Amino acid sequence: MSPGARALGVAFSGDGDDSGSLVACAAVVRADRVADGLALDARPVADGAATAAVQSLLARVDRPDASHLLVAGVAPTWFDVVDLGAVRAAADRPVLAVSFEPSPGLADAIDEAFAGEARAARRARYDALPSRRRVDVGERRLFVRALGCAHDEAARVVRAHTPEGQGRPEPLRVARLGARAGRALAGDGGAADR
């Protein structure tokens, strides 16, 4: 991958329940680790807020030169599962949801925390997600859900954008810093990127 190849990373900082706010940041970062653009979005936590924030950031950033969209996790606040299909349609490029810890998944937790339509909507989005596959980056293990590209391409992109010795792709690291700064500016503190 050339040093000037760009990826767009989106990370979140939000309250862990449904009473707070969600701050999302998009960062355009080149493979040589140069940040090339930022945008913020803030909104109340609600089912669908994370998906709407990513779509809003895509429109605001408007960077077709960023060949892939990396999203930090799939459920940033109160099991607000990102609709990766809707994000992929808005992004018009491959979407990679990257997580940083092994997990048994969210299906049982969603079923325990919600009932009725709230459960059904979250489970429908969760069940529609592509499978999570391990990507080894140096000695670190990341987990990637890829939509719009094969797993081999997703692994290549994640590795190309992850500095040696780091456990987080640079577009997501920069976006996480931006989201946390946005939350601090709003006076909320806290962070999430599950």
What's the helix-strand series?
Answer: EEEHEHEHHEEHH
Query: How much helical structure, as a percent, in the residues?
Result: 25-40%
Q: Structural class of the helices, strands and pairings?
A: alpha/beta
The percent range for strand residues is 25-35%
Number of helices: 6
Query: What would you call the quaternary organization?
Result: single chain
Main sheet: which strands, in order across?
A: 3-2-1-4-5-7-6
Q: Please tell me what the overall shape is.
A: globular
CATH architecture tag: 2-Layer Sandwich
Q: Would you identify the regions where 5 or more consecutive residues have pLDDT less than 50?
A: 189-194
How is the secondary structure organized here?
Layout: E1 6-14, E2 21-30, E3 35-44, H1 49-61, E4 66-72, H2 84-91, E5 95-99, H3 107-113, H4 116-127, E6 133-137, E7 140-147, H5 151-160, H6 170-186
